[in-house]
Design goal:
This protein is of the alpha+beta class and 205 residues long. The protein has helices at residues 2-24, 28-62, 149-156; strands at residues 67-74, 83-91, 97-109, 129-131, 136-143, 161-172, 180-189, 194-197, 203-204. The protein has three helices and nine strands. The relative contact order is 0.16.
Amino acid sequence: METIVYIAGSLCLIATIIAGMFGALGHRSLCIWTSGTAILFAVLTGCCWLQDREWKKDAPQANRPSLFLTGVSLGSLVPGQQLSGTMIIQNLGKSDAIDVEQESALITRTEKLTSDPPPLSRDSPPVKTMIPAGLAIKMTALGGPPLTADAIAKIVDKKLFVYVYGVVHYYSHELPKEEQTMKFCALYDPAVQDFKQTSFHNSTH
């Protein structure tokens, strides 16, 4: 687009000079025609310059990283062991995500949640990692006291509901250091042995 701006601007300048020459020589009609052409190129130059400016302004946002939860799996339900899960966080953006911090938890509820789950608390400083553009990494989530045989039976019978939720904080490798967040929440469905995204606590900023 910059090339078009330069070309249109140059043609506008040339047409203006020629129009001035025709005017000085008394060729009124030719002066009018070339002046109109100069105005046309001036308008074209202005439009192209504005479009180029908008493209450059939007380019950094288009190139930023964008993290999504693309998969969750629940560990084996074993009496005496905690709930555990593996999450796949993928960077679907066009630049690397750096200083990636994850806060997550697995919880059980006797009734289905209808709004955001309880806030997470950090027991220790989060581990920072990096997710290159187009790639994914696995992260783990733990939750709750050791499972009992009764709790496992209730999960299978859908009388006890398992949720995985959390927040991922990250920054762009290329843009100014502005924090971005990705919230996620999913409910385990024992019928298909998979998690399904909830209608709340899911967003990318």
